[in-house]
Amino acid sequence: MKKTNVTVALFAALSATSSFASITNIYDIDGYERVTRYANGPIASSVITSELAHNLNVYLHSSTRTNGCNYANVYTEIEGTFVAHAHVTDVDSRYGIKQATALIPDEYVAVNKRLVASCDGENGEQYNVHAKVPAAPIIDWNMTVEPEVDSEFVRQTNSYSYHSAYKVQSTLRVENQSTDSYCQTVTDRGVYLGLFNGQGGASKFNSNVFFATKSVDNTQNTQPVVYQTVECQNAAGRTKAVKVFSLTDSAGIELIEEHIIYK
């Protein structure tokens, strides 16, 4: 949970007049966690509740009974490139809770971002409240499948032929951007590989590398393919990686399909 904020007062010229208005920026500087708590300003906390990487959803909890946040934009964190306008709506006016939603284009789902909400204080003060939004998890997966030395290729006339045994070696690198995250194997067609250092998944890590080496007997639960899917999720959305290897070619075992899907 984020605990630290920095408040920096900046002055912005009003285009319509020659006067100046003070705009106080409330910065989130403590990483890409789901919840940010602010020490001062009109917003007590922001909570990212996105289920899908393309649909940003952030709740803004006011520090008072009223919430003067009516406008917000999404920018990339490093360059400050405009990503999308966020629609701000009332959720519970009794407790000053508003919701900021935005559609994130494909090219920005795997990029760290920030929501900047324009808010008014109780006495008319102007604030820009920043909330860091993590990129969807980044998965870099190297996996090889080879016939075991003592395996045979079983030929069948009325069904698919197959390799009787094979060896899997996997290296799975994951950047979750925050510790409020988890990864797991979601599809394996009955072949458990323990891709996360011998386990079926892992949680609460920012960045890690997982290794797996396993020999599989393909005569008991005979399969025409090695089909594995892993999925990682953080506050901003989910990323799915798919790998499929064919076991029906006597010449060897080949990778026939792989995908990275941002959900």
By helix and strand content, what is the structural category? mainly beta
How many domain regions?
2
Taken as a percent bin, the fraction of beta residues is over 45%
Gyration radius from CA atoms, angstroms: 25 Å
Q: Predict the CATH topology of the largest domain.
A: Immunoglobulin-like
| Helical stretch tally | 0
One letter per element, helices H and strands E, the order comes to EEEEEEEEEEEEEEEEEEEE
How many angstroms separate the termini? 24 Å
Q: Return the CATH architecture of the largest domain.
A: Sandwich
The CATH first-level class of the largest domain comes to Mainly Beta
Task: Give the integer mean of the pLDDT values.
Answer: 90
Biggest sheet character: 10 strands, mixed
Helix percentage range: under 10%
What sort of overall outline do the alpha carbons produce when their principal axes are compared?
elongated
Q: Could you name the ranges where pLDDT drops below 50 across 5 or more consecutive residues?
A: 3-20
Tell me how many strands there are.
20
Signal peptide: 1-21
Keywords: Signal
